[in-house]
Amino acid sequence: MKTFDYARADSVEAATRAGGRFIAGGTNLLDLMKLQVETPEKLVDISRLDLNTIEEREDGGLTIGALVPNSDLAADPRVIAKYEVLSRALLAGASGQLRNKATTGGNLLQRTRCYYFYDTAAGCNKRQPGSGCEAIGGFNRIHAILGTSDQCIATHPGDMPVAMRALDAVIVTQKADGDKRRVPIGDFYRLPGDTPHIENVLEAGELITHVELPAPTVGRHLYRKVRDRASYAFALFSVAAVVTVEDGIITAAALAFGGVAHLPWRNPAVEAALVGKAPSDETFNAAADALLDGATGFGTNDFKIPLARRTLIASLREVTQ
């Protein structure tokens, strides 16, 4: 690990003006620093800021502080009762020890687990722009099948952000000049395009302070994660679903997907294929067709396409029972 300066912020304003990389739990950043994938010159410790509470909103939703640990968020009775898909997604991620340290804001900013991103001897446009993407034509079993470019086929590794995408979460930030903004999670992440190293819309010094969840909707919640082992593994494919069935007809559906794209994936065409239809294999196959329209494998990840179809159909059968 290379040497770096360290500062502890005593306010959000001080943190945004400090001119360094923010660190709280450090469950991802410290690993990257040890491997010299990331070499920040300065770390700004935000772990003692007053951003670790969960508060109810007037509209019935929740405001979640960026420093709320994943374990606390998953165990909160209001989250379990109203946003079960979020609690399930959090418990599907990492290990208990890591969930105790990992924060809400940090979870949103996890970086890819691409083998070549972690190998500083390999070409990786996300780590070093212009160096190429060795995953294309290489071993790409865990890589994306949707939203890729000829510059990058990495996937977003998170579980929590997939559930938050299905819940239409809003990310609240504060900039170095004091301005605050609210960014819908669907607008927060960027596809790789020609600049895979730019992963989200945050500006230099901009800090995530809260996440807002809108009032919950009536419906059944499900989070299903397919992975290589039962725990402490990233998704090969995951589904976050909130679906409402009334009088034998699907009246509302919100679905997001992990393990298949550079960001938590959501396609309105999938939901449009479901709403207004009776639950059936024909309906579910139409939703899978919409999801996988344009999906492309790169060799060792070709299996993800039929895996995504089977998992989505099985998940829809369960959530519409």
TrEMBL record:
Keywords, in A-Z order: FAD, Flavoprotein, Oxidoreductase
Domain of life: Bacteria
Limits of the FAD-binding PCMH-type domain: 1-218
Keyword Flavoprotein included in the entry's annotation: yes
Originating organism: Sphingomonas endophytica
Protein name: Xanthine dehydrogenase YagS FAD-binding subunit
Alphabetized GO MF terms: xanthine dehydrogenase activity
Matching PROSITE patterns: FAD_PCMH (PS51387)
